[in-house]
Amino acid sequence: MSLNIEELARANVRALTPYQSARRLGGNGDVWLNANEFPLPVPFELSQQTLNRYPECQPKIVIERYAAYAGLTPEQVLVSRGADEGIELLMRAFCEPGKDAILFCPPTYGMYSVSAETIGIEYRTVAALDDWQLNLPAIADQLDGVKVVYMCSPNNPTGNLINQDDIRALLAMTAGKALVVADEAYIEFCPDATLAGWLQEYPHLVILRTLSKAFALAGLRCGFTLANKPVIDLLMKVIAPYPLATPVADVAGQALSEQGIALMRQHVAELNANRAWLFEQLPQISVVQQVFPSETNYILARFTDSPKVFKTLWDQGIILRDQNKNPGLAGCLRISIGTREECERLIAALQALSVEQA
């Protein structure tokens, strides 16, 4: 009896629901407030013309510049195809399928579970507390057999920082047993909160970073894993031979120049100002029930009829991210911070909807 193609596939892949990225979900909008991207393109010129040669596995200028930017040494930095590849490399290097597990605390970023399922690694979840901080006693109870704990700070989609005393407690309880991975995709919006300075103290701490958010390069797919040399050496054993295309390394190097970093900081200041403006405006609208504080380039808000709000704005070309399926986020939509004009269009659309429902 011959198997069809579906039956040839691994059972866990057949059952898998792929990560629902903003682009997979589609929409025909012109105000994209659903993917936490920077709202405007940044200019770069390609200078590398050696496309007939394979690229360096770890481009020297990119590594050196990111290390200088992060306050680390080059041997503590690995560059990959977005931070998403970093998430997966850690599982591949440290977790034995069918034996080891990872752990994370929902509501949080969806790729931790998707990567684990794809590779065939058990994942355990410990729901965050009502204020979205770590439930440390519950985590302690679940750590047996866990090799990697993922923790997003600031957290996506809630926008809050994880309490640093709690992170130290987590690092203490996992010492010698598991890695703690701090996903800092949004750290440029609150740079003082980074854990990069903790690497010397904690050999099992790993930090994930990206150029997709504050650096306005989501289309580049360039991320970084920051860790001590023993961790980086192991990841180098499992990373693809040529993870970064030559044009990607070229643009990343420019983005990490002094001028590139200055431009990023200017953009962060603009987005933080727009976020503060939205944070003032949203609570004045009747369909908005609650607005949660944020340290990122997005705001999470709870609405009285979120499906209607989502669809009404979608039909007007304003695309938000629905969070209703995330634990504890019933009625919530996530709003990426756009340009001031985009933020004003959003508020006007919500005000019009409020008048209709009054």
Automatic annotation (TrEMBL):
Cofactor(s) for this UniProt protein: pyridoxal 5'-phosphate
One Pfam family this sequence matches: Aminotran_1_2
Positions bearing N6-(pyridoxal phosphate)lysine: 213
Ranges for domain Aminotransferase class I/classII large: 45-350
Domain of life: Bacteria
Known pathway: Amino-acid biosynthesis; L-histidine biosynthesis; L-histidine from 5-phospho-alpha-D-ribose 1-diphosphate: step 7/9
UniProt keyword annotation of Ubl conjugation present: no
Keyword tags: Amino-acid biosynthesis, Aminotransferase, Histidine biosynthesis, Pyridoxal phosphate, Transferase
PROSITE patterns in the cross-refs: AA_TRANSFER_CLASS_2
Reactions mediated catalytically: L-histidinol phosphate + 2-oxoglutarate = 3-(imidazol-4-yl)-2-oxopropyl phosphate + L-glutamate
E.C. code: 2.6.1.9
Keyword Cell inner membrane: no
Known partners and oligomeric status: Homodimer.
Family: Belongs to the class-II pyridoxal-phosphate-dependent aminotransferase family. Histidinol-phosphate aminotransferase subfamily.
Name of this chain's protein: Histidinol-phosphate aminotransferase
Underlying gene: hisC
